[in-house]
Amino acid sequence: MKVLTDLSAEDFLRKHGFDVLETKLVKKESELAKMKLDFPVVMKIASKTIVHKTKVNGIRLGIKNKEQALKAFRDLMKIKGAEGVLVQKQAFGEEFLVGLKKTSEFGYVVAFGKGGSKVEKMKKVDFRVCGLLGMEDLTNNKEIRKILHKLCKLSGYKIESLDINPLIIEKGKPVIIDTQIVFE
C-alpha cells in the first residue's frame, strides 16, 4: 500500500487534469520570511504521520499578514511529527467532499457530500457506482459532476481510496484544497 498526501497527491491530480489550489511547502522560518504571500492564506502542518490535520490543531485559517504567518509557522512546527508547513491562498465558498473508493461488492464508487472538518460528524455522503448513471442525482452542479466522472477514470491506477476534502466552489469554479490517495 502506498499513500500520497499533500503535494504528492496534488501533483498526481494535476497531471490528470484536476484544478488544485497551488500549495507551497515551507520547512524553515527564514524561507517564509522571504516568501511573497497573497493574503489571506491558510497554513497547514505537513507530516507523513498525521492524516487528519484538524485532530492535532494543524490548520490555521484567515492569516492576514506576514507577522501572523510567522507565528502560525512557529506554532505548527511545535506539533509532534511536523516536517514543514503548507501554505495556500485561502479559498472561500461552499465545501464539499468528493472521492473514489474501491469496494468488493461494486468495484469503484464515487463519493459526494458536504465537506470540511465536520464531514465525519455529519456522515452525509452519497455513493454511486462508476460507469453507471446517477451522477445527476448527486448534484446539479455540472462542474462537480465533471470531477466525479474524472475520478472514475482514475480507477485504472489501482487506487484503493481517494479523498478530496474540501473541494470548494469559489466563484462558480471548483478548487481542490486537500487530498489523500491510497494505492493498493
Structure description:
- This protein is α+β, with helices and mostly antiparallel strands.
- It folds into two domains: 22-89, 2-Layer Sandwich (Dna Ligase, domain 1), CATH 3.30.1490; 93-183, ATP-grasp fold, B domain (D-amino Acid Aminotransferase, Chain A, domain 1), CATH 3.30.470.20.
- Helix content is 26%, strand content 38%.
- It has six helices and eleven strands.
- The chain has helices at residues 6-15, 29-34, 66-77, 119-122, 135-138, 142-153; strands spanning 2-5, 23-26, 41-46, 59-63, 84-89, 94-103, 107-114, 125-129, 159-170, 173-176, 179-183.
- Strands 1, 6, 7, 8, 9, 10 and 11 form a seven-stranded antiparallel sheet that branches.
- A hairpin with a 3-residue loop joins β6 and β7.
- The protein starts with a strand and ends with a strand.
Strand-residue proportion: 35-45%
Task: Label the overall shape.
Answer: globular
Average pLDDT for all residues: 92
H-E order: EHEHEEHEEEHEHHEEE
End-to-end separation: 5 Å
- Domains counted in the coordinates: how many? 2
CATH class of the largest domain: Alpha Beta
Give me the secondary-structure category. Answer: alpha+beta
The CATH topology of the largest domain: D-amino Acid Aminotransferase, Chain A, domain 1
Helix-residue proportion: 25-40%
- The CATH architecture category of the largest domain equals 2-Layer Sandwich
According to CATH, the homologous superfamily of the largest domain is: ATP-grasp fold, B domain
How many strand elements?
Answer: 11
Q: What radius of gyration results from the CA coordinates?
A: 17 Å
